[in-house]
Design a protein that fits this description.
The complex is a heterodimer of chains A (398) and B (278). Chain A has 398 residues and is of the alpha+beta class. Chain A has 9 helices and 22 strands. Helices cover 76% and strands 0% of the residues of chain B. The chains are: A alpha+beta (398), B mainly alpha (278).
Chain lengths: 398, 278
């Protein structure tokens, strides 16, 4: 259950820098999620933690001890691969018991033929058998112990892979997108099982995924990566509520955070179509007023009203798409009245906003309506760099 | 629809029968010739159905006066020796080619191919002088070495491509699970490529069993002849007792067929491993 410290870690392949100076400090027993789009370097990061990939520069510490260059088996870790990497020639029983076999094998036990005989002998050992049965019961694999991996379904294979990781009781579990090959129902079920496992075994987990739902539901801490650069490190709530930049804002959340360009003028926001909204009392705002900003508003902070219900805190908009999801409806809209748009206006992605509204509200695409933004907890980003602007609650309202 | 089905299965049956006849004809010819006397063969009194009662006499007269069993056991020593040595070298070389990056890897791979481009006859003379220096003439070990030199590169390429097909993650997983680097071959790789090893074994075995040119050149002592050379000795300057040649050829073929059937089962069981319960 070590504390993991990334100390300026970089990884290059030839001239290509995959991980750019990565530093973070992860406390004990956390469920750390490495989250990012494909090719962002998150799997490389995990493999460096496991010792399967060399670290180019920087230091990786487990509990203050530098582990660069130590073999995976010396790091006391278990790794669950995306492909599960089960041993196809061994039964489920031998697959789960494999780490125990290896710890009991003497060098000459690895010789051909001798290894088969020794494997059978160790598997018959009551102590090993008891451990395998305990893990198999936990993973609901008892009925499949004598089968080979090829005869199992994806979910069962995944459980064998986790079972194999569990049997040794390592101090850290590393999981590389273990759910990506499963169907939606099984995925949500396994999500809950892995979270539950983390609570039960009380060890550190490092979990790699590109799925923000997995990251938000399972992680106690998330590192968001993009193009080898750490974007943000924090708890799921911090990352959802206060994204560090527009990348995180758009990557986390479904639908992603709405980014609306406007001009901050003191404590009021002026939008391109002329509407001006006042920031409510007690709402934090960037300390440098009178500038162009990107206003970040979560979809659930936007409510809709009929187009005739004009009030001082509403903005006109028209619907582009309405997606009915049962309990809720996700409405994609564009600010401004439909009549004000010319036919040639194409709907660019960046000026399409989304609102999450109750499912029973029915809106027809093309219709005009008004939106009300809840401005009590919004984010402000720099227009050019996309970085989050530091905010302060004004003196008078503190 | 059913008519079409019957017709297509009939055509398929006919095609397969034709292939079986073509492939089986030499064996049938062996049997038939072996059960006739030379006089009958050359006198045109050929029975199309082999007379099974005449096998034994044919065999005994064919092997009388020649150390046939000795030759066969020499062949077995050469064939198994070649298989064993080739596989050991080929497995290690294939693993290195498949998994490691090292200087000269491409050249090494090409050099292996290049050995297959040279005709064996070209190397007989240089090999002879090398074997003379090292005292390997008239020695079955020498024959094993020269056959291995030609059989092993093929085995390397068969095994390398099989190893390339084994996911790297399985080995990485074994590393994390505490499998030492040196045991990766025996614990993970060999069981997974068993069918290819069996295929390579068949090829190297037949290279050793059938080899004639080196045996003819390097082995002069009749007691050390492998069966391929012994079989050729039936062909005399003036008389060739065809029925004896065929009877001896049958004896020469049978062990090889037995070996193939034995290994073939392994190939099939390797391919279906894990697909059945148990």
């Amino acid at each position: 259950m070590p504390r993991i410290r990334f100390n300026g870690i970089t990884k290059t392949y030839g001239d290509h820098e995959v991980i750019k100076t990565f530093s973070a400090d992860v406390p004990d027993n956390e469920f750390l999620v490495l989250l990012g789009p494909s090719g962002c370097g998150k799997s490389t990061m995990l493999r460096m933690i496991a010792g399967l990939t060399d670290i180019t520069a920087g230091e990786l510490e487990f509990d203050g001890t530098v582990v660069n260059g130590t073999e995976p088996k010396e790091r006391d870790i278990a790794f669950v691969f995306q492909s599960y990497a089960l041993y196809p020639h061994l039964t489920v029983r031998a697959n789960i018991a494999f780490p125990l076999l290896m710890s009991r094998f003497k060098p000459y036990h690895h010789l051909p033929v001798v290894n088969t005989l020794m494997r059978r002998r160790v598997l018959r050992d009551p102590d090993v058998d008891a451990q395998v049965r305990r893990v198999a019961a936990m993973m609901e694999l008892t009925d499949y112990l004598d089968r080979r991996p090829r005869t199992l379904s994806g979910g069962q294979r995944q459980r064998v892979a986790v079972g194999r990781a569990l049997i040794r009781e390592p101090s850290m579990y590393l999981l590389d997108e273990p759910l990506s090959n499963l169907d939606a129902i099984l995925r949500s079920q396994m999500r809950a099982e892995i979270s539950d496992l983390h609570h039960r075994v009380g060890k550190s987990f490092v979990y790699v995924t590109h799925d923000q739902v997995e990251a938000m539901t399972m992680g106690t801490r998330i590192i968001v990566l993009n193009e080898g650069v750490i974007q943000q490190y924090g708890t799921p709530k911090e990352i959802y509520d206060s994204p560090a930049n527009t990348f995180v804002a758009r990557f986390i959340g479904s639908p992603p955070m709405n980014l609306i360009r406007c001009r901050l003028d003191g404590r009021s926001l002026r939008f391109p179509d002329g509407v001006t909204l006042k920031l409510p009392e007690g709402c934090a705002s960037p300390s440098a007023p009178d500038r162009d900003v990107l206003l970040g508003v979560r979809a659930e902070k936007i409510s809709v009203a009929p187009s005739d219900a004009v009030a001082s805190d509403t903005m006109p908009a028209h619907i582009i798409v309405s997606e009915y999801l049962g309990a809720e409806t996700v409405v994609a809209f564009k600010l401004g009245r439909r009549a004000d748009q010319t036919e040639q206006d194409t709907v660019a992605k960046h000026d399409l906003q989304q609102a999450r509204i109750p499912g029973e509200l029915h809106l027809t695409p093309g219709a005009d309506f008004t939106v009300r933004l809840d401005l009590t907890n919004v984010s402000f980003f720099d227009v050019d760099s996309g970085e989050r602007l530091p905010v302060a609650v004004p003196e008078a309202t503190r | 629809m059913t008519l079409r089905k019957t017709l297509s299965s009939a055509v398929r049956g006919f095609g397969i029968s034709l292939l079986v006849v073509v492939a089986g004809f030499p064996v049938y010819w062996l049997f038939t010739t072996a059960t006739h006397t030379t006089a009958e063969l050359f006198g045109g009194q050929v029975q199309w159905l082999p007379d099974l009662r005449r096998f034994l006499t044919s065999f005994t007269s064919a092997t009388s006066g020649v150390p046939m069993l000795r030759w066969l056991s020499n062949s077995a020593v050469v064939a198994f020796g070649t298989t064993f040595l080739s596989l050991i070298i080929a497995i290690l070389a294939a693993y290195a080619l498949s998994r490691y990056r090292f200087r000269g890897k491409g050249v090494f791979g090409f050099a292996l191919f290049a050995t297959q481009m040279l005709p064996e006859a070209l190397l007989v003379v240089p090999l002879y002088s090398i074997f003379l220096t090292f005292g390997l003439l008239d020695n079955l070990t020498g024959l094993v070495l020269s056959d291995t030199a030609f059989a092993m590169p093929v085995a390397v390429w068969i095994l390398k491509s099989a190893m390339d097909g084994v996911s790297l993650e399985i080995e990485e997983s074994a590393r994390v699970d505490g499998c030492p680097r040196y045991a990766m071959l025996t614990q993970i790789m060999l069981p997974l490529i068993a069918p290819s090893i069996a295929a390579a074994a068949v090829i190297t075995f037949f290279e050793g069993w059938n080899e004639y040119l080196f045996a003819n050149t390097f082995i002069t002592d009749e007691q050390k002849w492998p069966a391929s050379k012994g079989l050729a000795s039936f062909i005399g300057e003036f008389v060739t007792p065809l029925n004896h040649v065929m009877a001896a050829a049958l004896m020469f073929t049978l062990p090889a067929i037995v070996f193939f059937l034995f290994v073939q089962r392994r190939i099939v069981s390797g391919l279906t491993a894990g697909s059945v319960k148990g």
